[in-house]
């Protein structure tokens, strides 16, 4: 909702009035501020005010182009600029750091009429966003195999894990991942198509480099639950319901190892053993 | 509601007595495209200025690179979003992040622009002009005092390129800035290109800006290029420093030098070697005018 332009208390508006007027001029094409300006040495005031108006939109489109370069290249004609314009109007920046301006763009694309019928736009944008976020997400330790050696075999059942803060797990209802990969490799993208069931796309940072790969259903389920702090023993039970129960622990250990090799985990800890309700006098928890 | 307390117009702030930042020589704005060339080679650059906001992020490569470059070079932090002249309250998280970054990299000094970037919770991501009134001066003086107290260090304020002027301004820009420095003890970044751009757009004398800026407060020069549209000049910082800005630089060197100097390229980023060559021009001009700089460098 644009702020209503205040009436200038000319000839001497206050600093706050000046700022409200100029902001209204830039955001809402309101011309009241012109009464508070002088003409330039070589150009009339409305031309010079136009520099700020033009710069505002141009700068933010540039930011979106920088944040979503593959989406920009994927869209045809002025599709990207029109959607970017609509986004800029609907989502004025609320952050001092322009780094975060384009964060809601994927969600915007998911619902905007101009992107209707192109679900892959929002999903492609979500991958690019996750890559950008992984790039400068918080630093954190990386869990290695040696870190797990301190736990006795009988303790593994109670182990819980923390995902690296750079991790994002996305759901793709289209082949957006294939489109993303083709665009990244500078190859022609495949025709967009819906997928059933959906794909699981994991984005994280290894060292200083963002990584993207697919996870199949079972691995993604375990990864998501591990991220919620579910114990390793319970994760193995979940895998047993997914596929061959006989080798579920081995599959779980395999996933765990691959995540550790890829720097996706930050830490492991022993979960508290919960009290049995039939033993009311026991301590609430022991560790 | 503005939470910066008003400060009487005549009050001097304690930061005035802080030691002047040292002369750093000739530097560049640090740009990610040049990280590997800087770390793999030994470019003829004395120091780097970083855009503070680019490193006010949670972690990852930007901060890692900054730490590595900081280990080898003096750094100045230069922000674009402090919004020192805004009538909106300061963004607490922004100030906290700025302070945390300053404590992490211990810059030679922290700077931002004499401008505002938005009100009503919106950020326009532009360096917007103010009327040069006594009301605005009192307001900005109070805000600079607040930031200097919060950061526990004096800041430097840069003149911006402007396209519009307010009819009710009560003093020229240089008088406003001089008074700001006198009352807050802040340092000044003198952007030579910005002076040139604003002087053309508004029809005032760039030399008057130089003559009326307090020489003892200027701690840095910015040099950059612009786009001339005949009826007005747009400050793009995306091109070579043009002859007319070099000419103004000579006048600035004559009055203020020695002053730490950078080429500030924000767009159309060329190879590092091109910027180092352009920086050589700035160095040569200053050393021709001030031979002691050449001797100091040789030693």
Label this structure with key terms.
heterodimer, A: 287 residues, alpha+beta, Outer Surface Protein A, domain 3, two-stranded antiparallel ribbon, 11 helices, 15% strand, elongated, disordered N terminus, disordered C terminus, B: 299 residues, alpha/beta, TIM Barrel, 10 helices, 14% strand, globular
Structure write-up:
The complex is a heterodimer of chains A (287) and B (299). By secondary structure, chain A is α+β, with helices and mostly antiparallel strands. Helix content of chain A is 45%, strand content 15%. Chain A has helices at 15-28, 45-67, 69-74, 79-90, 105-111, 119-135, 145-148, 176-184, 217-227, 232-242, 248-261; strands spanning 37-38, 159-163, 168-174, 194-206, 209-215, 265-270, 273-274, 285-286. In chain A, the strands form 3 sheets. Chain A has a 3-stranded antiparallel sheet with strand order 3-4-5, sandwiched between helices. Residues 1-5 and 275-287 of chain A have low confidence and may be disordered. Chain B is of the alpha/beta class and 299 residues long. Chain B is 39% helix and 14% strand. An 8-stranded parallel beta barrel of chain B has the order 1-2-3-4-5-7-8-11, surrounded by 4 helices. Chain B has a two-stranded antiparallel sheet with strand order 9-10. Chain B has one domain: Divalent-metal-dependent TIM barrel enzymes (TIM Barrel, Alpha-Beta Barrel). The chains are: A alpha+beta (287), B alpha/beta (299). Chains A and B meet through helix 1, strand 1 and helix 2 of A and helix 2, helix 4, strand 6 and helix 6 of B. Strand 1 of chain A pairs antiparallel with strand 6 of chain B, so a sheet runs across the interface.
